[in-house]
């Protein structure tokens, strides 16, 4: 006992000594300063290096930009969704603990809550909010369990999904708040490359983030690449910006930010927004009719390629297939026909034709000017409403699909996709990879060495090829086998919780 008491007394004395030494050093120059060191003399700069009166234009620009941001922030919201997902797990712990002795495994049902972030913008006095469909629905197009909207003043509101259109990737929400401040939808037809824009949203959960840039590119009548009708901007857009507004100098919404082209998964200065005129069409359709009413022609089609144009023009759309009972069938269109004019307007590509047809009044009789076997022909048809389950497509003629390499895993027949191995994406795998609840596509199971597509990684999910949805390995192969291997291919890829474009170029 005496030895123990002595030991405790020794510990107390040592502790007291250390404490006294610490206090002394702290009072005499700090712990890191040598003893006897005097404080350094310093003088901070008192004046700015540039007199504001010398840069009045920049000062005015600063004030105006601040005023613009202040005016639009109250209309931009952050969106958080929650979805309960049931997952069946098989627990294999018995084999781990009991060596080679096998014991029966009993599957267990677990419920996981998956959260996702996005952005939105208030567009009506009644509290209607526009966002992307992929922000508020799961991979099967079903509404998420809960949608919560956070306003710029910090208040949170439960939101209702009024309607969504997966084809346009736009959804309409509503909150109950009499004091909302909506933003006006601009006329996106007047937008031009070079116009100043702001992108505002909730990237990575950082609410009210503002980035600026210009309209980098706008779809032109002769455009045939994957951008279609989208507005391209160099304003930084990142995961979480989806559904937020692209705003012009007048505080009007010119587009809804949707996706990016990126090798890293983050902003690389190439973002895309859905034009506000498309947004207005979807908004009015959902609010007036409960759905978007579109006209349809009923063809599978593709643009003319080099060497296929007729003697007078390289514009037009080739008919690959005609849907039975459709307006195209009524007009007796045939595979191989080239559509040059729709209702008196020139048809430059698939995108412009789809837009013309979709905006045509239902039951209206329209004339089509086509070329069949090198001879001009005029036919008439009546535009009908697009069926609910109708999926537009713009694929090249299909070849025989490639054979599977092994069960559950296949590869494309040629071109830049030939070195990519894919398999079906299961709910269990999606949970393990921490993918968004709405992800739907095929899982990359491997990429051949020296393939030139090193940006793609095992575990990535390919959701689209050239804007064509991919929901299974079978879909993937049908699309991959129908493309032109000498042309670049654009993949929509989901990696963890980030979505981006990936361009594969032929080697």
Which word captures the global form? globular
SS summary, helix count:
9
**Helix/strand structural class:** alpha+beta
Helix content: 10-25%
User: What is the radius of gyration computed over CA atoms, rounded to a whole number of angstroms?
Assistant: 30 Å
How many domains would you count in the coordinates? 4
How would you portray this structure in words?
The protein is α+β, with helices and mostly antiparallel strands. The chain folds into four domains: 71-174, Thrombin, subunit H, CATH 2.40.10; 188-289, Thrombin, subunit H, CATH 2.40.10; 295-385, PDZ domain (Pdz3 Domain, Roll), CATH 2.30.42; 409-504, Pdz3 Domain (Roll), CATH 2.30.42. It is built from nine helices and 28 strands. It has helices at residues 2-27, 56-72, 93-97, 133-136, 276-289, 327-330, 350-358, 427-432, 473-480; strands at 76-89, 108-122, 128-131, 146-150, 156-158, 160-165, 170-174, 196-201, 209-218, 231-233, 245-247, 253-260, 271-275, 295-296, 299-303, 317-322, 338-342, 345-346, 365-372, 375-382, 384-385, 409-411, 420-424, 442-447, 461-465, 468-469, 489-495, 498-504. The protein has a seven-stranded antiparallel sheet. A hairpin with a 5-residue loop joins β11 and β12. It is globular, with a radius of gyration of 30 Å.
């Amino acid at each position: 006992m005496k030895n123990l008491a002595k030991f405790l007394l020794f510990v107390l004395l040592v502790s007291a000594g250390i404490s006294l030494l610490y206090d002394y050093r702290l009072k005499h120059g700090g712990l890191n300063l040598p003893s006897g060191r005097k404080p350094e003399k310093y003088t901070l700069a008192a004046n700015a290096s540039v007199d504001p009166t010398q840069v009045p234009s920049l000062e005015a620009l600063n004030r105006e930009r601040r005023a613009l941001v202040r005016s639009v922030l109250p209309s931009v919201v952050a969106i958080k969704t929650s979805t309960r997902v049931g997952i069946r797990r098989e627990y294999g712990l018995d084999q781990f603990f009991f060596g080679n002795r096998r014991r029966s495994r009993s599957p267990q049902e677990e419920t996981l809550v998956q959260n996702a972030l996005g952005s939105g913008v208030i567009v009506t006095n009644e509290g209607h909010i526009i966002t992307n469909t992929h922000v508020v629905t799961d991979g099967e197009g079903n509404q998420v369990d809960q949608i919560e909207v956070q306003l710029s003043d910090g208040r949170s509101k439960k939101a209702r999904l009024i309607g969504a259109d997966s084809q346009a990737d736009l959804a309409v929400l509503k909150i109950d708040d009499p004091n909302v401040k909506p933003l006006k939808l601009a006329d996106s037809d007047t937008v031009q490359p070079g116009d100043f824009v702001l992108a505002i949203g909730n990237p990575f959960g950082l609410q009210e983030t503002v980035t600026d840039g210009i309209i980098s590119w706008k779809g032109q009548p002769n455009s045939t690449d994957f951008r279609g009708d989208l507005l391209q901007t160099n304003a930084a857009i990142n995961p979480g910006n989806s559904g937020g507004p692209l705003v012009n100098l007048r505080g009007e919404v010119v587009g809804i930010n949707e996706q990016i082209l990126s090798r890293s998964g983050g902003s690389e200065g190439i973002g895309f927004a859905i034009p506000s005129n498309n947004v207005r069409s979807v908004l009015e359709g959902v609010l007036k009719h409960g759905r978007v009413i579109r006209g349809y022609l009923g063809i599978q089609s593709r643009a003319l390629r080099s060497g296929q144009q007729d003697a007078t023009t390289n514009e037009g759309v080739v008919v690959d297939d005609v849907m039975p009972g459709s307006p195209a069938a009524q007009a007796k269109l045939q595979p191989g026909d080239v559509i040059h004019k729709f209702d008196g307007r020139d048809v430059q590509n698939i995108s412009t034709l789809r837009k013309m047809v979709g905006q045509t009044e239902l039951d209206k009789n329209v004339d089509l000017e086509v070329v069949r076997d090198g001879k001009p022909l005029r036919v008439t048809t009546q535009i009908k409403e697009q069926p609910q389950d109708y999926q537009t497509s713009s694929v090249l003629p299909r070849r025989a699909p490639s054979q599977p390499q092994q069960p559950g895993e296949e590869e494309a027949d040629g071109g830049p996709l030939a070195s990519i191995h894919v398999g079906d994406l299961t709910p269990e795998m999606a949970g393990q990879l921490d993918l968004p609840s709405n992800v739907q596509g095929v899982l990359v199971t491997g990429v051949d060495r020296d393939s030139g597509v090193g940006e793609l990684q095992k575990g990535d999910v390919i959701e689209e090829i050239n804007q064509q949805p991919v929901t299974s390995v079978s879909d993937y192969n049908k699309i991959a086998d129908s493309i032109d291997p000498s042309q670049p291919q654009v993949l929509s890829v989901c990696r963890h919780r980030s979505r981006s474009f990936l361009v594969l170029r032929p080697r």
